[in-house]
Amino acid sequence: MGTQEKRIKTSMVMVRVSPEDHAALAERARDVNMTVPAYMVSCALGRRTRSQADAHILEELRRLGEQQRALHASGDGTLTAQYSVVLVEIVGAMRRLGA
């Protein structure tokens, strides 16, 4: 089913949680720009959720990687090893964040 298609939701799941747990769920849902029910369904079904902070960090890492790549390409070869190490670390950080 495409992301633009609307699913007909007719089933309901009732869950009781403590006020503290509800506050924590609401905060996490807000962080990934979802409603609490949508967040709970995504988590329960093992779907990936990405926080706005993670998305911002990934974008910054991509930007830094492009700059590092440009420096590597324009260099005279004296810093090739250092540029490569930094690029590997940037790619590793992106993978750990799920990119």
UniProtKB/TrEMBL annotation:
Annotated InterPro entries: MobA-like, NikA-like
Name assigned to this protein: Mobilization protein
Organism: Rugamonas apoptosis
